[in-house]
Amino acid sequence: MNKKTTDRIVRLSILNILFIILCFITLIPIIYAFLLSISSGSSAFGSGFLFPENPTLKNYKAILVEEPFLIWFKNSVVLSLGTMILAMSTSVTASYAFSRFRFRGRNGMLKLLLLLNAFPQILSMFAIFRLFKNMNLLNNYIGLILIYAGSMCIFSIWNMKGYFDTIPIEIEESARIDGAGSGQIIWRIILPLARPAIIVTAVMVLIFVWNEYLFATTFLMNEENYNLAGGLYQLQANDYSRNWSLFSAAAILVSVPILILFFSIQKYMVSGLVTGGVKG
């Protein structure tokens, strides 16, 4: 083995070791939360919380049985799926139109969408609250879904437009020569080819809604309407505010569905996000 090959192996080994150390560092908060969730104490800094002497699942049982966790879970599912369906049904068609058609004001509209996305959402919260109060949309899933869908449409349009740009237009032209109509081209050719971007974008929308806290706690005021983020806030704000083991158990349960979903679409992540971002 020559010196060049040896140096390459050494560099790759050092790089891999650094990556392993970095991954371990990022896992420390998750490991800490899990160990805290199975401890019998309630303090975040009590003795034995790093390696519990008597591990127990009572905190998980308390969350599922004594607290309305399943109701919060159902509310989050409704909000996430509703937002994903509404946002994707509008952004897929809009991103395809921005990618394929050249019309007056196209570039200006894209820049305007990007500019709107640069402003913090909290700036519009008071105006939306007054509007929804007059429209009786407070404590209503429809109002929150409209907010979420409007917020995520901009990201969805830009990400999927970049992916549509990578699909050669010659494919559509060949299909038209063979007699395919516009609807057949979109449903049978374009959407299957854009599946990675559509799946990844839809999951990103779902994750955003699943973890969103500010608007959820502002526009959903009743405990039975809380999503998981609002439920976690409620756990921390009421009698359990000092029971960090119970809070950690709830946080772990909230994260599990997202982890399962993320790993199930992991093969689409690179092509769906990188291609859309680079070509956007």
General description of the model:
This protein is mainly alpha-helical and 280 residues long. It has one domain: MetI-like fold. The protein has 13 helices and no strands. The protein has helices spanning 3-37, 58-65, 69-100, 106-118, 125-134, 141-166, 169-177, 182-193, 195-211, 214-219, 228-237, 244-264, 266-279. Helix 4 crosses helix 6 (141-166). The radius of gyration is 24 Å and the shape is globular. It starts with a helix and ends with a helix. The relative contact order is 0.14.
Provide a concise account of the structure shown:
By secondary structure, this protein is mainly α.
Q: Provide the residue-averaged pLDDT.
A: 82
Q: Briefly, what CATH class?
A: Mainly Alpha
Bin the helical content. over 70%
Q: Looking at the structure, what is the overall shape?
A: globular
Low-confidence stretches: 272-280
Topology, please?
Layout: H1 3-37, H2 58-65, H3 69-100, H4 106-118, H5 125-134, H6 141-166, H7 169-177, H8 182-193, H9 195-211, H10 214-219, H11 228-237, H12 244-264, H13 266-279
Helix pairs in contact: 1-12, 2-12, 3-6, 3-9, 3-11, 4-6, 6-9, 6-13, 7-8, 9-13, 11-12
From the structure above, extract its key features.
disordered C terminus; single chain; mainly alpha; 0% strand; 13 helices; MetI-like fold; 76% helix; 280 residues
